[in-house]
């Protein structure tokens, strides 16, 4: 069994920031799955959504995750929708542990407001829209070894919680 830590959670829950700190503390490789996709595609996520559509993005995401999951001693920050595809959840389950970061809807809304790089919230990043997306994804986010509410916590504090709990 591989020892990776996969960080899941909605946009704006601190996956990348926490993942980076966690990897430094553990001395492991940090992998930002969105960045792997951008490197592979040679263009931004916003551009992939615009030119090829979400299904094409999800296909690249699944391929990137499968490749990353074959290695070990990594902290992997996944994109907020990576948990949706069953094969992605299986890839993560079979390659380490899953840490799900959460935050209050208000916190998420405040963190993502004005961010034009997130295509799924570009047209509407209201509390209502975020709540409805969260509701649709909750069962997938709940499929984790550890869940941490990041609301009001520092990145360092969340990283410490992960280390203490795993
Ligand atoms: C997405 C989240 C984004 C990125 C893409 C789709 C989602 O990643 O993968 O825009 O479906 O929630 P972050 O959660 O890192 O913003």
Automatic annotation (TrEMBL):
Its main location: cytoplasm. Keywords: Amino-acid biosynthesis, Aromatic amino acid biosynthesis, ATP-binding, Cytoplasm, Kinase, Magnesium, Metal-binding, Nucleotide-binding, Transferase. Binds 1 Mg(2+) ion per subunit. Its EC number is 2.7.1.71. ATP binds at residues 12-17, 118. InterPro entries: P-loop_NTPase, Shikimate/glucono_kinase, Shikimate_kinase/TSH1, Shikimate_kinase_CS. One of its GO terms (cellular component) is cytosol. Mg(2+) binds at residue 16. It catalyses: shikimate + ATP = 3-phosphoshikimate + ADP + H(+). It is found in: Cytoplasm. GO terms for molecular function: ATP binding; magnesium ion binding; shikimate kinase activity. Belongs to the shikimate kinase family. Monomer. This is Shikimate kinase. It comes from Citrifermentans bemidjiense (strain ATCC BAA-1014 / DSM 16622 / JCM 12645 / Bem) (Geobacter bemidjiensis). The gene is aroK-1.
């Amino acid at each position: 069994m591989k020892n990776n830590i996969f960080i899941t959670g909605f946009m704006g829950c601190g996956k990348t920031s926490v993942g980076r700190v966690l990897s430094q503390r553990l001395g492991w490789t940090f992998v930002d799955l969105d960045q792997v996709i951008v490197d592979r595609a040679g263009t931004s996520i916003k551009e992939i959504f615009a030119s090829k559509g979400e299904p094409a993005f999800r296909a690249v995401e699944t391929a990137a995750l499968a490749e990353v999951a074959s290695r070990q001693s990594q902290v992997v920050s996944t994109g907020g929708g990576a948990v949706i595809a069953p094969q992605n959840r299986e890839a993560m389950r079979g390659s380490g542990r899953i840490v799900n970061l959460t935050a209050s809807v208000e916190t998420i809304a405040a963190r993502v407001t004005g961010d034009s790089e997130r295509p799924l919230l570009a047209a509407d990043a209201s509390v209502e829209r975020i709540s409805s997306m969260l509701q649709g994804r909750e069962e997938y986010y709940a499929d984790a070894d550890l869940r941490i509410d990041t609301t009001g916590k520092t990145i360092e504090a969340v990283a410490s919680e992960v280390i203490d709990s795993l």
